[in-house]
Amino acid sequence: MTGFEIAGAGAADMELMRSWADAEGWNPGDHDRFAFAAADPEGFLVGRLDGEPAACVSAVRYGTGFGFIGFYIARPDLRGQGYGIQLWRAATARLAGRLVGLDGVVEQQDNYRTSGFRSAWTNLRHQGVPGGGDERVAGGGGDIEIIDAATLPFARLADYDRRFFPEPRDAFLALWTGLPGHTARAAVRDGRIEGLGVIRPCGSGAPRIGPLYAQTPEVAAALVRRLAGYAPDGEVVLDVPDVNPAATALAAGLGLTPVFETARMYTGPVPELDLAHLYGITSLELG
Would you state the pLDDT for residue 26? Predict the structure, then answer.
């Protein structure tokens, strides 16, 4: 197409992509882009029409065998003109030969299936002020302590995160747990990590919790309540994978309300993850 060019995103483009995602109702975090860029600096693409941004996509490589697509957005006034599909082709070409995942909104899932993606589970976004108890770990043993995750050796956090993600993502995780405004709390028992949660501010909605990992529903509930204490009015957002029934029950028990839905989809076999202890995904954009 005359006048349409695809190139890597710069810092200003990353902020534009965040604002476009916000306009779609995806509610990305205020500072997510810094951790996103660290995950794969070359994994964010922008298509420009006559020099002006027209569409964007991310195609982030993790390790040697996994990739994740996100931020697939065309400017509303340019949709249906083929610019988005060109970005899509560039993204899939960049991830060729890898298992690829994405979180697809309902209206796009049939298109993703046409491209070879298959649904693995549904993520239901829940929102509200967590109720029904306090920050202590009820029924989980009094020897569990919730602490600042930054006080733990980073290698231990990274090892724990690897149970829930197909490839190492150390550069991303280091920033995700330490960026300004991000609050990371870990549940620890006898020196072992038994839960991890991060909350971060979002410009146009309630702060988002993600990831949320826990060895028991009681630990997950305690982490949510502790993290909600860092939300201005106590209201939080949590993207809950329905593949873990305990996570769905937790959200209901806390009084959170479903407000949005996506499907986790892959181009091949679902990775072997610790889904039984996954209570909230990290982000829609990077998995």
Answer: 85
Q: What is the per-residue pLDDT across 75-134, written as a single tens digit (0 to 9) for each?
A: 999 999 999 999 999 999 999 999 999 999 999 999 999 999 999 999 999 999 998 665
Q: What is the Cα–Cα distance from 120 to 142, expressed in whole angstroms?
A: 36
Picking from 88, 118, 94, 82, the residue whose alpha carbon sits closest to that of residue 2 is 82
Q: How far is Cα 243 from Cα 262, in angstroms, rounded to an integer?
A: 13
Q: Is the pTM of this model over 0.90?
A: yes
* Strand residue runs (E) in 159-271: 183-189, 192-202, 205-214, 236-241, 257-266
Cβ contact 71:58 at 8 Å: yes
**SS3 string of 104-150?**
EEHHHHHHHHHCCCEEEEEEEEEEECCCCCCCCCCCCCCCEEEEEHH
Rounded CA separation 82/207 (Å):
35
